[in-house]
Design brief:
This protein is α/β, with parallel strands linked by helices. It has 21 helices and 25 strands. It has a six-stranded parallel beta sheet with strand order 3-2-1-11-12-7, with helices on both faces. Helix 2 packs across helix 3 (about 70-85), helix 13 runs antiparallel to helix 16 (about 435-455) and helix 14 (about 380-400) runs parallel beside helix 16 (about 435-455). The chain binds ligand ME8.
Amino acid sequence: MPEKKEKFYLTTPIYYTNGLPHIGHTYTTVVADVIRRYKRMRGYDVVMTTGTDEHGVNVERAAKKAGVPESEYVAKMADAWRALWDELGIPADEFIRTTDLKHVRTVQWLFKLCRENGYVYKGHYTGQYCIYDNAFVNDAKPGDNCPDCGRPLETVTEENYFFKLSSFQKPLLDFYKKNPEFIQPDTRRNEIISFVEGGLKDLSITRTTIRWGIPVPGEEPHVFYVWFDALTAYLSAVGGPEYEKRGLWPADLHLVGKDIIRFHTVYWPAFLMAAMLPVPKQVWAHGWFLMDAAKMSKSKGNVVLPRPIVNMLGMDALRYFLLRDVVFGQDGNFSYDALVTRYNSDLANGLGNLASRTAALIEKNFAGKIPKPGALKPQDEVLAKEAQNAIGEVLENFDKLSFARALETIWTVIAAADKYLTSEQPWALGNSEADQSRKATVLWTTAELLRIVTALSFPVLPDSATKVWTLLGQSVVLGKFELDGLRWGQLGPGTSLGKSQTLFPRVDKTEAIERIESMANEELNPTPAAPAPAASAPTATGASAAAATAPAVSDKIGIEDFAKVEMRVGQIKTAERIVGADKLLKLTVDIGTEIRQICAGIAQYYEPESLIGRKVAVVVNLAPRKLRGVESNGMIVAASVGPEGRPVLTAFLEEVEVGARLK
Ligand code: ME8
């Protein structure tokens, strides 16, 4: 019988639905995904939950502003959050919405348990409340501003149900003492311990002024207040009242930002203790990503979006940067400059270059098969030792969630391999038996090192590590590879190299930043775009979208409508691929009166060189727009063929003058 895997249940916060994810949210979710992949490679059965926090006054207001019912508003937002996580390759195993019925039942059940155990009573509460952060601000006076977001607080008095948090001062302090790992990092633990030592006030857990919330059964109009509602989502996601059946509770790790550590390490364990339910094993609070030294937040509008970065540099680049540039637990400044610099130096010139160099040399010298190493020289052994030692060090750092350290160790080994190749110069060796044998040793050593760093970097770079793994001819699925079995010396000579794929094309920093910013701008301030015909569509689906919106056959247009479209013969002068946009080509086209830059969604079907000099039909009076951050001033006409909408460019059978109008 196979041994049963140990479970590992981790969560991200359940994010508010009053905006879309920015880099801060992406950071927490990426970290959760890295831990999920890492733990799986260490043999755990891992489940990761994320979701959306959908109740409260903010949602009521946002829905009203949008003129739709709250339920419709949150459903749309939850879909958008889920879709973005899917698009970024970090989907949840469990996606919980606080409007899910199973969650509603769990919150009501938890309340019942707390009440039955004598920890809930009815009272009145007057306080200063921040409607933006959904929190009463202790010690604030009327007229004060919110210490978090700086906006005015509101005085609120109402009948509430209270939770006897004050009864949990001692149980919590005892719990922290017995479980020193519960709050991480240590600095946060000390903060929380002093806070609890200072005394705990009872906590109001229901509202009567809010409509959009989970009803307290039999006590309407009371609805649950955000934190009693939101925190419970972690439990609802894995069984709620029937949590024992699923066997995942208590959570092994709640990942949160430092802004919400108190709720997770004081309120949440107290609620669970009151209900006599198991308490999570650990809460890890990371720092904030700052933009110009201020916390990035939806309400301040100083947000960095993930999608434009991913379009330009790829998801792995973003993941790498987020984990490499900031010590986990501390605050970090976000800058595009640092991001692109890291991308070029560590990914394009580092891992990418080592992989392509090694593969090219093996291809050339050993017909694409991993060579058999000959006698070892001291420098080979030094490198082998360095790589072998790195394995233990990297695993230890991943275990401590010291991601920056783990990556630093991996990249030190990559740099050592680069240096080794440069000094051994296998390309300068001849064809004598001794030289061949030396070449084989050097290339096997480099390839083996590459295999090790690839396996170790998979949790952070799942796409690119998989590409390198395939390149090295490894057949085991990398995500299922057990890191415990990773040792120097396992690379089998004779293994055929696999397919080589683009890893990290170098980018020009200024251009890359400009394009990321321009894409972010497009996303934040979308302009209603006309349906995109095939050749200018950035995606293959653009063609079918155009077809779907085309007028029905009977909807004839008059000649005057057609005359509005100015189409001319253009001649393609230059054509190049666009980094980060697999389907687009950037063309310069002579349209008779001027040379235009036009993007066309034909990169998968036309080699750029084959287009130079070709005459095509161009729509010249289309408003300029940006595609993937690149300005496009006009549209190349193409037929859209087959179910995939393969673009086929127009051609003229007779000689035509550049600039001639198509009528
Ligand atoms: O607080 N830097 O949701 P939220 C780093 N619904 N991380 C950041 C960040 C930044 N600038 N901004 C946000 C809520 N985050 C509640 C949680 S849980 C039961 C309920 C991340 O949408 C970080 O993880 O405001 C932070 O804790 C979380 O997003 C807050 O997300």
